[in-house]
Structure to design on (620 residues):
C-alpha cells in the first residue's frame, strides 16, 4: 500500500519534471530570437535615416552615405528570380496536381524535395558555371537565375498542395457545363486556389530576398548605381556580409542598419502573406 | 504528283524517316481527335515545365561534374582523403574541410535535437492553445531571419561573448580535456556550432511538432485511461514518432551541412584538423563562399567546384534518407 503510493507520487513528480523541462527547452529557444531582434533593432536604428534609402555608399574612410543602390538591387534581383521561378513553379505545380499521378510525377515531386535541400551556395556555383563563365563577367542576370532556381521548390509544392485543396465538386461542376479541362483548370481551379498559391510565391520571394551565398559570385555586388541586368549589381545581403567583415566601425554600423531594413522588407512580405491567408479563412 | 503526301513518301523512301512520319501522323491524329486542342496544349505545356524541373537537377550535377573535371582527373578519390589544402602549391585535399563540416554539423545536432524535441513536446502535448500559437509563430520567425543576419549577430555579439566568458570558463573548468584547450579567439568551431544549433532549431522543432501531432489522439487517450501520467503517455507518443523525429533530425543535418554565410563569418576559416573547439576550422560551404572569387587558377576553381559537387551529393543523400524516414513513419501510422 505504502510502496504503491510512493510509486504513484514518484511517477507524478517525474512527469511534472519532464513536462517543465519541455517548457525550459522552449524558453531557451526563444532567448536567441529575442537577442537577435534586440541587437538588430537597437543597433540598426541608430543609423537609420533618410540618407540610407536615398544616398549612395561613401568611399572608404568617409562616414555617412546610404545603400540606395543595394535596396534597388535586392528588389531587382528578386524580380528577376521571380520572373524565372514563378512560372516554372506554378506550371509544374499545376502539372503535378492535375496530371502528375504517375511515375514521372512522383519523380518530379521527389526532385523538388531534393532541390529544396540543396545548399544555396551550390546553386550559386551552378549559376556561375551556367551563366558567368559563358558571358565572361559577373551579372545580375546570373544572380537572378540562382534565386529563381531556389524559389522553384517552394512555389511548386505550395501550388500543388493548394490546387489539391480545391474540392472535386467545383471541378466537376465546370466540366459538367461542357467547359474544356484546361479552361476549368485555369479559370476555376487556379482562381479558387490563387490565394494559397500567392502565399507560396511570397514565401519564395521573401526567402530569396535573404539569400547571400548564391549572389557572392554571380551578381557579385557593385558600389555604384546600376540597373543594368547584364552588369554586377549590389544587394543588401552582400553589403551586410562585406560591411560586417570590414575593419571600419562606420561600415559595421551600417551593416546593422542594412540588416534591419532587410528584415523589415522580409516581414512586410510575410505580413502580406498573413493578410492573404487570413482573408482566405474569413471567406470560408 | 500533286499530292504532297505522296511526294514526301517518294522523296524519303528509307525506313527511318518513314517510321518517323508514321509516328508524327499518329501524334497528329491523337491531337485532332483529343477532346479539345486546348486540353492537349495545356497538358503538354505544364508537362514541359515539370520536365524542366527534372532536367534542372540533372543539369546541376552535370555542370558541376564538367566544371570540376580537371580536379577530378588529377586528384580522384584522394581529393577526399588528402589533408593538405594549399592553393599556393596547387594541392587540394578536402579532408580537413570535410572534417570541419561533419564535426560542426554533428555537434550542432547534439545541442539542437534534444531542445527541439523538448519544444515539440511542449507545443503538441503540454501547451494550452492560446500559448501554442504565438510560440509557434516565434519559432517560425527564427526560420525567417536571413543567414547573413545570424552571421552579423555572430560576429558582434556571440563571438565576443564566447571570447570573454565561455572559453575562459571552459578552459578553467574543463581544460584537462583536449576539446577545450588553446587560446580563446572567439572565432572558431565553438562559435560555428552554437550558431548552427540556433539556426537548425526552427526546422527540426517544427517538423517534430507536426510529427508528434500526427500520432493519433487515441494513443494518448488509451495511455491516460490506464492511469498513465502525462510523461508516460508522451513516451508512448515518442515511440510511435521515432522514425519521423529521426527524419526531422536528418533534415536539420542537411541544413547544417549546407549552411554558408553565418558559419563562414564565425568559424575562423582555416583548413586544419584540431580536436580543440576553440580553434578555427572550415566547412565545405564556407570554403566555396570565401575563396571562389579569389580562385585565380583553373585548377583552384575546379577544386572548389568539385567541393560543391561533393556537397551536392552529400545533401541529396541526407535529404533522401530524411524523406524515406518521414514516409515510413507516415505509412506506419496510416496502415494502423
Amino acid at each position: 500500500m505504502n510502496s504503491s503510493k510512493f510509486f504513484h507520487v514518484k511517477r507524478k513528480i517525474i512527469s511534472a519534471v519532464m513536462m517543465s523541462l519541455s517548457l525550459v527547452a522552449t524558453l531557451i529557444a526563444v532567448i536567441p530570437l529575442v537577442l537577435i531582434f534586440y541587437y538588430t533593432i537597437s543597433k540598426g536604428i541608430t543609423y537609420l535615416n533618410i540618407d540610407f534609402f536615398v544616398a549612395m555608399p561613401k568611399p572608404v574612410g568617409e562616414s555617412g552615405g546610404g545603400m540606395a543602390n543595394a535596396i534597388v538591387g535586392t528588389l531587382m534581383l528578386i524580380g528577376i528570380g521571380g520572373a524565372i521561378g514563378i512560372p516554372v513553379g506554378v506550371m509544374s505545380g499545376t502539372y503535378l496536381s492535375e496530371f502528375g499521378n504517375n511515375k514521372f510525377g512522383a519523380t518530379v515531386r521527389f526532385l523538388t524535395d531534393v532541390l529544396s535541400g540543396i545548399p544555396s551556395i551550390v546553386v550559386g556555383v551552378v549559376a556561375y558555371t551556367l551563366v558567368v563563365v559563358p558571358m565572361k563577367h559577373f551579372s545580375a542576370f546570373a544572380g537572378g537565375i540562382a534565386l529563381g532556381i531556389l524559389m522553384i521548390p517552394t512555389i511548386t509544392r505550395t501550388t500543388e498542395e493548394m490546387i489539391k485543396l480545391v474540392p472535386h465538386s467545383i471541378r466537376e461542376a465546370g466540366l459538367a457545363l461542357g467547359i474544356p479541362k484546361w479552361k476549368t483548370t485555369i479559370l476555376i481551379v487556379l482562381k479558387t486556389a490563387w490565394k494559397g498559391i500567392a502565399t507560396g510565391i511570397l514565401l519564395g520571394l521573401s526567402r530569396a530576398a535573404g539569400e547571400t551565398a548564391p549572389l557572392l559570385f554571380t551578381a557579385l555586388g557593385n558600389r555604384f548605381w546600376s540597373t543594368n541586368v547584364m552588369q554586377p549589381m549590389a544587394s543588401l545581403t552582400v553589403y551586410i556580409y562585406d560591411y560586417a567583415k570590414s575593419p571600419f566601425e562606420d561600415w559595421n554600423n551600417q551593416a546593422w542598419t542594412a540588416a534591419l531594413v532587410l528584415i523589415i522588407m522580409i516581414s512586410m512580405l510575410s505580413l502580406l502573406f498573413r493578410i492573404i491567408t487570413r482573408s482566405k479563412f474569413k471567406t470560408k | 504528283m500533286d499530292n504532297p503526301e505522296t511526294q514526301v513518301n517518294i522523296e524519303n523512301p528509307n525506313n527511318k524517316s518513314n517510321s518517323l512520319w508514321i509516328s508524327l501522323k499518329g501524334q497528329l491524329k491523337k491531337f485532332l481527335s483529343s477532346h479539345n486542342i486546348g486540353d492537349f496544349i495545356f497538358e503538354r505545356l505544364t508537362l514541359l515545365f515539370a520536365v524542366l524541373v527534372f532536367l534542372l537537377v540533372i543539369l546541376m550535377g552535370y555542370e558541376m561534374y564538367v566544371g570540376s573535371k580537371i580536379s577530378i582527373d588529377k586528384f580522384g578519390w584522394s581529393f577526399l582523403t588528402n589533408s593538405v589544402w594549399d592553393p599556393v602549391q596547387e594541392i587540394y585535399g578536402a579532408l580537413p574541410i570535410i572534417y570541419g563540416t561533419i564535426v560542426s554539423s554533428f555537434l550542432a545536432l547534439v545541442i539542437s535535437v534534444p531542445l527541439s524535441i523538448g519544444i515539440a513536446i511542449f507545443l503538441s502535448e503540454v501547451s494550452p492553445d492560446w500559448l501554442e500559437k504565438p510560440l509557434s509563430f516565434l519559432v517560425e520567425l527564427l526560420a525567417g531571419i536571413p543567414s547573413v543576419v545570424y552571421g552579423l549577430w555572430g560576429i558582434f555579439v556571440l563571438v565576443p561573448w564566447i571570447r570573454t566568458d565561455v572559453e575562459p570558463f571552459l578552459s578553467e573548468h574543463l581544460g584537462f580535456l583536449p576539446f577545450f584547450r588553446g587560446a580563446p579567439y572567439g572565432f572558431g568551431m565553438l562559435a560555428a556550432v552554437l550558431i548552427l544549433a540556433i539556426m537548425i532549431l526552427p526546422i527540426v522543432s517544427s517538423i517534430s511538432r507536426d510529427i508528434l501531432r500526427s500520432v493519433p489522439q487515441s494513443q494518448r487517450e488509451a495511455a491516460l485511461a490506464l492511469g498513465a501520467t502525462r510523461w508516460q503517455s508522451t513516451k508512448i507518443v515518442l515511440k510511435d514518432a521515432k522514425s519521423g523525429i529521426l527524419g526531422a533530425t536528418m533534415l536539420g543535418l542537411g541544413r547544417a551541412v549546407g549552411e554558408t554565410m553565418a558559419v563562414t563569418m564565425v568559424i575562423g576559416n582555416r583548413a586544419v584538423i584540431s580536436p580543440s573547439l576553440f580553434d578555427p576550422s572550415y566547412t565545405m560551404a564556407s570554403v566555396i563562399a570565401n575563396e571562389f572569387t579569389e580562385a585565380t587558377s583553373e585548377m583552384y576553381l575546379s577544386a572548389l567546384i568539385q567541393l560543391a559537387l561533393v556537397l551536392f551529393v552529400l545533401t541529396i543523400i541526407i535529404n533522401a534518407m530524411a524523406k524515406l524516414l518521414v514516409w515510413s513513419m507516415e505509412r506506419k501510422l496510416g496502415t494502423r
Q: What stands out?
A: Chain A touches chain B through 88 residues (CB under 8 Å).
